[in-house]
Design goal:
The structure is a single chain. By secondary structure, the chain is an all-alpha fold. It has two domains: 1-38; 53-92. The chain is 72% helix and 0% strand. It is built from three helices and no strands. It has helices at residues 4-35, 55-82, 85-90. The longest helix has 32 residues, at 4-35. The chain is elongated.
Length: 92
């Protein structure tokens, strides 16, 4: 039997660990950069208030949508796999 799944999981975990470290380092670098930016001067004229969503809300919505999309894609890929030649040859 192939050890593909075990090797793929191992490689995937290594990738995700490395990616998480890189993301943490990037966030830390941005935090340090932002601390160095001087405060913006006051606008000479009043700026009208606009009711915009926060970056946190936009990010949460985007990732929630991506999770739903990925779940739908998983179901579609699974259903497609059930119709594949491999299924008919190896699972019959």
């Amino acid at each position: 039997m192939s050890d593909y799944v075990a090797e793929a999981n191992k490689a995937g975990e290594q990738y995700l660990t490395t990616l998480a470290k890189a993301q943490d380092d990037f966030v830390a670098a941005i935090e340090n950069f932002v601390k160095q930016i001087p405060a913006a001067p006051q606008a000479p004229v009043a700026v009208p208030a606009v009711d915009l969503p926060s970056a946190t809300d936009v990010t949460a919505f985007s990732f929630d949508f991506a999770e739903k999309l990925l779940a739908n894609q998983r179901i579609s890929a699974r259903d497609l796999g059930l119709q594949s030649i491999d299924h008919h040859i190896f699972d019959a």
